[in-house]
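Sequence, structure tokens passed on for absentees:
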Amino acid sequence: MAKRDGKTITLGSGEIFLTEFTGEMPTVDTICVDDNLLAHVKGGAAIEYTMEPFEESDDLGKVKKIIVTKEDAILKCGLLTWNGHTLQKLVERATVTEEGGKRITKIGGAGNDNGKNYVICFKHTDTVDGNLWALIKGKNTAGLTITFAADAGTVLEPEFKAMPHDDEGTLIQIIEEMPA
């Protein structure tokens, strides 16, 4: 296996894993297990990092300083495989019960707010150049649209907004496998 370096081309999609945030970020080996698989991805995944700079300068333009005053990160993906338990993790005001051979998902209601934050991990598997993982702490902020079409699978498209997950204010962790 080659090393991921400045010449590595990352191709392909991956899988989304999710677990409840318990105070510290788990390792990728801990989160990327079958029990934490949120869904298989269709249409890829995207991480957006944006920042808002503030610029100050003197009237003559001889001195200038630029600092970042605000930053945001969002993980977007298309989830092809899902069920009521997936919906419960995407909508903080959703509840799931199972009885009589049926799963009942109720969405909405202020009294149903679970207040949970999650660790979301996008895993890109590459047997040639090494795997890559992107981790954030956050929750879905895009709401939910479920479209049932005759000619396409029903894909959910959450947007997980990142929140700082350590004392440094880290929003995104990108982990690259560095084979020996």
Notes: Residues 15-54+65-122+137-167 form one domain.
